[in-house]
């Protein structure tokens, strides 16, 4: 008999939880095969195009043979300088581009590799639940022990740091955080980050703050950087991505910045795993960071209009949803009698709309589904009408 894939998997890989939504995917495909027009609100992938000045920079860069060779491991000097300038402008934080900035093949890549750089077997990583699944899975793959930080609505989906048992905090080497948050769309003020720095100092924990949504914010709200908190540079790093801000998910460009030792450790690991980001893509990234802000503002305004369309429509239909100040997600509590998977199935069968079950982001997420608004307005309107007929 042919061995199954699972038998071939290392024990390390077997620790990765199975894909939870195979059944939901199968039903979606079944409906589509029968000719049903299914609308997906499941993916967080902007449908709007990358800004024109970024495309133009890429066109030029691609024609320059100097970009065709192996890139410098930590990223080009000029990309890292552009990051440092952007940081200064946007957050008033001064970074040394040579020691405190590292280019990444998308922030996911750098998040996934961090536990390999920092954890020894059995070390604890504190991971939010619900949270971006990479934090937990990367910890497991690196033989670390993930400890859940439950995010609940009562505390505005912030973790209660005082709830972490001292025993666990002492074994913790790493804490992942992410605000503006995927999937809950929660935001925080700088005061919360100051608390995090105090905790990190007390227990000698490295903080990895994922700020992928720093620019996707509404109603005048400007999300803070973790590195603005006093002492943050001593304890942690922050991840950023070009993906969401400039609608560049396919380009694969992000960076990590902050504490020089952590940046160096991740950089050392990465020189042994990959050979960096295509220099032409880094030049395009520089153009994005140094270029006009207007294209970003226009995109954010489009997301804001969609947010209102979705929130107002759903509230009229009796859904209890918050109007998020940032990200392009709604985190909606499921009605009594459902869990997140059965409710997503119900929505798919009755409305032909795909939403993401919250349990995919952790056990604590199982009372919620996530709806994204990275779908064109006409399709979103149609989705809202269908969801309104649902109940
Ligand atoms: C989209 C997303 C990322 C990944 O971004 P890339 O730079 O495209 O890898 C990281 N963290 C969160 C929370 C995200 O939602």
How does this structure look, described?
- The protein contains 16 helices and twelve strands.
- With 391 residues, the protein is α/β, with parallel strands linked by helices.
- The protein has two domains: 11-49 and 294-388, Aspartate Aminotransferase, domain 1 (Alpha-Beta Complex), CATH 3.90.1150.10; 52-290, 3-Layer(aba) Sandwich (Aspartate Aminotransferase, domain 2).
- The strands form three sheets. A seven-stranded mixed beta sheet has the order 2-8-7-6-5-3-4, with helices on both faces.
- The model has no long low-confidence stretch (mean pLDDT 95).
- Bound molecules: pyridoxal-5'-phosphate (PLP).
- Residues 44, 106-108, 132, 178, 182, 210, 212, 241, 243-244, 249, 254 line the site of pyridoxal-5'-phosphate.
List the helices and strands and how they pair.
Blueprint: H1 5-8, H2 11-14, H3 22-33, E1 39-40, H4 52-62, H5 77-91, E2 101-104, H6 107-118, E3 124-129, H7 134-141, E4 145-150, H8 166-171, E5 172-177, H9 190-203, E6 206-210, H10 232-235, E7 236-241, H11 242-245, E8 254-258, H12 260-271, H13 279-290, H14 294-316, E9 329-333, H15 340-351, E10 353-354, E11 356-357, E12 368-372, H16 377-390
Parallel strand pairs: 1-10, 3-4, 3-5, 5-6, 6-7
Antiparallel strand pairs: 2-8, 7-8, 9-12, 11-12
Helix pairs in contact: 4-13, 5-13, 6-7, 6-12, 14-16
This protein binds pyridoxal-5'-phosphate (PLP).
Query: What is the approximate shape?
Result: globular
Major sheet strand order: 2-8-7-6-5-3-4
What is the total tally of β strands? 12
Describe the largest sheet. 7 strands, mixed
- Rg from C-alpha positions? 21 Å
Q: In CATH, what is the homologous superfamily of the largest domain?
A: Type I PLP-dependent aspartate aminotransferase-like (Major domain)
Which range does the strand content fall in?
5-15%
Total of helices: 16
């Amino acid at each position: 008999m042919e061995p199954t894939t699972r038998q071939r998997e290392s024990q390390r890989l077997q620790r990765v939880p199975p894909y939870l939504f195979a059944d939901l995917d199968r039903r979606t495909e079944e409906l589509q095969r029968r000719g049903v027009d299914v609308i997906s609100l499941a993916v967080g992938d902007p449908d709007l195009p990358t800004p024109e000045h970024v495309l133009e920079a890429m066109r030029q860069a691609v024609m320059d043979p100097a970009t065709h060779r192996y890139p410098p491991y930590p990223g080009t000097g000029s990309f890292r300088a552009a990051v440092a300038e952007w940081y200064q402008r946007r957050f008033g934080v001064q970074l040394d581009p040579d020691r405190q900035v590292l280019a990444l093949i998308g922030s996911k890549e750098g998040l996934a590799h961090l536990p390999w750089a920092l954890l020894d077997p059995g070390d604890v990583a504190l991971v939010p639940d619900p949270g971006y699944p990479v934090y937990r899975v990367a910890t497991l793959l690196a033989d670390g022990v993930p400890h859940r930080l439950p995010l609940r609505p009562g505390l505005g989906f912030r973790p209660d740091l005082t709830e972490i048992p001292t025993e666990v905090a002492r074994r913790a080497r790493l804490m992942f955080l992410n605000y503006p948050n995927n999937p809950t769309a929660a935001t925080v003020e700088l005061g919360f980050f100051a608390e995090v720095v105090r905790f990190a100092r007390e227990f000698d924990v490295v903080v990895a703050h994922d700020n992928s949504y720093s620019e996707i914010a509404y109603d005048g709200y400007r999300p803070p950087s973790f590195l603005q908190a006093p002492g943050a540079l001593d304890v942690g790093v922050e991840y950023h991505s070009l993906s969401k801000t400039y609608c560049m998910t396919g380009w694969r460009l992000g960076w990590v910045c902050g504490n020089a030792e952590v940046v160096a450790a991740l950089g050392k690991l990465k020189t042994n795993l990959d050979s960096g980001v295509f220099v032409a893509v880094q030049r395009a990234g520089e153009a994005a960071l140094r270029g006009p802000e207007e294209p970003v503002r226009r995109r954010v305004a489009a997301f804001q209009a969609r947010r209102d369309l979705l929130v107002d429509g759903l509230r009229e239909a009796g859904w209890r949803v918050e109007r998020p100040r940032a990200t392009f997600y709604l985190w909606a509590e499921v009605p009594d009698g459902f869990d997140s998977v059965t409710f997503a199935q119900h929505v798919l069968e009755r409305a032909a709309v795909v939403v993401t079950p919250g349990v995919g982001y952790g056990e604590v997420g199982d009372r919620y589904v996530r709806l994204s608004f990275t779908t064109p307005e006409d399709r979103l309107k149609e989705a809202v009408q269908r969801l309104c007929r649902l109940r």
